[in-house]
């Protein structure tokens, strides 16, 4: 199984989801069976590590995101990944426009799929520290539900 998380810049929300899912898969003993990656719909931050606020908030909960580098999502990703999960409806719209007809990946809105209180992971980039904590809270809960789904599909 291959899972790709997608947000706008690939420096806040989707790198957090990548780090949290990797951690949870390791705890579940599934790290060799699921490949996890993240990408942005935009290209502004390609090659850069996650935002320092994102890295700091994640590290405080035990997730080290320092090795990640931003990349832009591409049409080929629809044949490389089994599941592509968008952080908000704008990201989902961009992905739908990019999706080739021959693409095999399943595309969904991350939080809607896992029945959280919110449908979207709010963009924390222009806000305060609490936004980064909310991103982590939402992503940790949704990833725990994703791990249950992945266990059933493997
Ligand atoms: P992300 O957050 O999509 O969660 O990585 C953002 C990062 C950068 C920008 C916007 C959102 N930006 O405008 O540069």
TrEMBL record:
CDD domains given in the database record: LMWPTP
Cross-referenced SUPFAM superfamilies: Phosphotyrosine protein phosphatases I
UniProt keyword annotations, A-Z: Hydrolase, Protein phosphatase
E.C. designation(s): 3.1.3.48
Pfam family membership, one: LMWPc
UniProt keyword Hydrolase present: yes
GO molecular function, one term: protein tyrosine phosphatase activity
Record-stated family: Belongs to the low molecular weight phosphotyrosine protein phosphatase family.
Catalytic residues (positions): 7, 13, 123
Domain Phosphotyrosine protein phosphatase I: from-to ranges: 1-149
InterPro entries given in the database record: LMW_PTPase (IPR050438), Ptyr_pPase (IPR023485), Ptyr_pPase_sf (IPR036196), Tyr_phospatase_low_mol_wt (IPR017867)
Protein name: protein-tyrosine-phosphatase
Lineage, top ranks: Bacteria, Pseudomonadati, Pseudomonadota, Gammaproteobacteria, Pseudomonadales
């Amino acid at each position: 199984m291959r899972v790709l998380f997608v947000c706008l810049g690939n420096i806040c929300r989707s790198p957090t989801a990548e780090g949290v899912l990797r951690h949870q898969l390791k705890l579940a003993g599934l790290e060799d069976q699921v490949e996890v990656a993240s990408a942005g719909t935009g290209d502004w931050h390609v090659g850069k590590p996650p935002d320092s606020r994102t890295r700091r908030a994640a590290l405080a909960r035990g997730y080290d995101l320092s090795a990640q580098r931003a990349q832009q999502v591409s049409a080929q990703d629809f044949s490389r990944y089994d599941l592509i999960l968008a952080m908000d409806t704008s990201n989902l719209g961009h992905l739908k426009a990019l999706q080739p007809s021959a693409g095999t990946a399943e595309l969904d809105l991350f939080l809607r799929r896992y029945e959280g209180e919110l449908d979207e992971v709010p963009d924390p980039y222009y806000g305060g520290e609490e936004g980064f904590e909310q991103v982590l809270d939402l992503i940790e809960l949704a990833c725990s539900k994703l791990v249950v789904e992945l266990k059933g599909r493997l």
